[in-house]
Write a structure and sequence with these properties.
The protein is built from twelve helices and 13 strands. It has 370 residues and is an alpha/beta fold.
C-alpha cells in the first residue's frame, strides 16, 4: 500500500516539471516510448490500416482514459438493466481482470445460473453476475470471440463491453467514456508518469462523456468541456448513490437508513477508498476503524482475522465493505457471512431520461445501418 500512495502523490502533483524527483524523471522517461507506441497504434486504427471487427449486433463500450476507479461496474450494471427494460437482450463481455480464467471463453453467468466463482471469473464479472441474474456474462481475452458466443449461444442482440476504451479490435457503435468528476485527467501525463492510459486526444473517439461522482467532484473540466463542444460529444452527469446493505452471503438486506448511528469497522481494496469512506459518513455511520488495501487486493485469512479481531475489540455493530470487495472474500464463508456490503447504483443528474434517449437513438441508428 505505501507504494500505491507514493504513485498517487506523483500522479497528483499537477504535472509540474519544476520539482521533479529522480523517480518522476525516470517515470517521465519511460512514459515517452509508451506514449509513442500507443499513439502509433491509434494512428493505425484511425486510418483503418488495422481494421476493427464489426459483430452482427450493436456494441456498447464502457471504458475510461485513466487507471483507477471511475465507476465502470455500476455503469455496466445500470446500462444492462436499462437495455433489458427496453426489450433488448444484452450480454456483458469482460476481460475478467484478476480472475484465474484460462480458457478463451469463460461463461460466468448464462442468464439463469452463476457458473464461476469470483476467484476464477474476477471480482467485477462475479459482482455483475450477482447483480444481474437474467443477463449472460462472459469473460475472455478476446471480446470478438466472447461476443460471437454471446450472440450464437444466448441470442444477445446488444453487447456491453466492459473496460474497452483502449481495446480497439472490436468495433463499437457507442463509446461511453467515464471520467471522475473530481480528477478526470490526472496530471495530464500518461503512465507511469501520470495515470492516463493514452493521450487526451483519444477522447475524440468518445460517443459521450459520463462524469461520475458528480456530487463529490469540482464541476466540469475545461479541457473536457472544450473537447465536448468542438467534437459535439454530449456530457452526462452521474452519481453513485448508496441503495442498501446486504449480508456477505446475500441472506439479508437492509435499507441504507439502518447505517445511521451504527458503529462500523470498514475495510476496502478499491482505487478510491476515500469515496467509500465519505459515502459511509454521509449515511450517518460512525467509523471506528478503516483499513485500506491495494486495488483488486486478494485477501488472505490472516488479514481477515485481524479485521475480525479489531471489530471485536472496538465493540462495533458491523463490519462493512464495498460490494466489489465482498466478492473477494467469498472463499472465506465464515468471514463473509458475518460482514455487510454497501450496495451502490449509478444515477444521472437530474434524471436518466436524456441518457436513455441517447442510448436508444444510437442503437436505432446502428440497427438501421446493420
Amino acid at each position: 500500500m505505501p507504494e500505491m500512495k507514493y504513485w498517487q502523490r506523483i500522479w497528483n502533483d499537477g504535472g509540474s516539471v519544476s520539482r521533479y524527483t529522480i523517480i518522476q524523471i525516470i517515470a517521465f522517461a519511460i512514459s515517452l516510448p509508451y506514449l509513442l507506441i500507443i499513439n502509433f497504434r491509434n494512428w493505425l486504427y484511425d486510418r483503418k490500416i488495422i481494421a476493427s471487427v464489426k459483430l452482427p449486433c450493436p456494441v456498447i463500450s464502457v471504458g475510461n482514459i485513466t487507471v483507477g476507479g471511475t465507476g465502470k461496474t455500476p455503469c455496466v450494471i445500470m446500462l444492462a438493466r436499462m437495455l433489458a427494460s427496453n426489450g433488448f437482450k444484452p450480454a456483458i463481455l469482460s476481460r475478467g481482470y484478476g480472475g484465474k480464467n484460462t480458457k478463451a471463453v469463460n461463461i460466468v453467468s448464462d442468464g439463469k445460473n452463476i457458473l464461476l466463482d469470483g476467484k476464477t471469473a474476477g471480482d467485477e464479472p462475479f459482482l455483475m453476475a450477482k447483480s444481474l441474474r437474467s443477463i449472460p456474462i462472459i469473460v475472455g481475452p478476446r471480446r470478438i470471440k466472447t461476443g460471437i458466443v454471446a450472440i450464437n449461444l444466448f441470442g444477445a442482440n446488444v453487447l456491453i463491453c466492459d473496460d474497452t476504451m483502449q481495446h480497439r479490435q472490436i468495433f463499437r457503435d457507442i463509446n461511453l467514456v467515464l471520467l471522475d468528476s473530481h480528477d478526470p485527467l490526472g496530471n495530464g501525463h500518461v503512465l507511469p508518469r501520470g495515470k492516463l492510459r493514452e493521450s487526451i486526444t483519444g477522447l475524440r473517439r468518445a460517443s459521450a462523456f459520463v462524469l461520475t461522482r458528480a456530487n463529490e467532484g469540482q464541476g466540469k473540466n475545461k479541457t473536457i468541456e472544450q473537447l465536448a463542444k468542438t467534437e459535439n460529444i454530449p456530457i452526462f452527469m452521474s452519481t453513485h448513490t448508496p441503495k442498501d446493505i446486504v449480508k456477505g452471503d446475500y441472506s439479508e438486506q437492509w435499507p441504507i437508513a439502518e447505517l445511521k448511528g451504527k458503529k462500523v469497522c470498514a475495510f476496502c481494496g478499491i482505487a478510491k477508498p476515500d469515496s467509500f469512506k465519505k459515502t459511509l459518513l454521509d449515511t450517518g455511520a460512525q467509523i471506528l476503524s478503516f483499513d485500506i488495501f491495494p486495488d483488486h487486493h486478494r485477501f488472505n485469512k490472516n488479514e481477515l482475522e485481524k479485521i475480525k479481531a479489531k471489530f471485536i475489540d472496538c465493540r462495533a455493530d458491523l463490519i462493512i465493505t464495498t460490494q466489489k470487495d465482498g466478492m473477494r472474500v467469498q472463499e472465506f464463508p465464515e468471514f463473509s457471512n458475518m460482514i455487510y456490503l454497501l450496495r451502490i447504483e449509478m444515477e444521472f443528474i437530474p434524471s436518466s431520461e436524456s441518457f436513455e434517449n441517447f442510448i436508444l437513438d444510437r442503437l436505432a441508428i446502428a440497427q438501421k445501418i446493420g
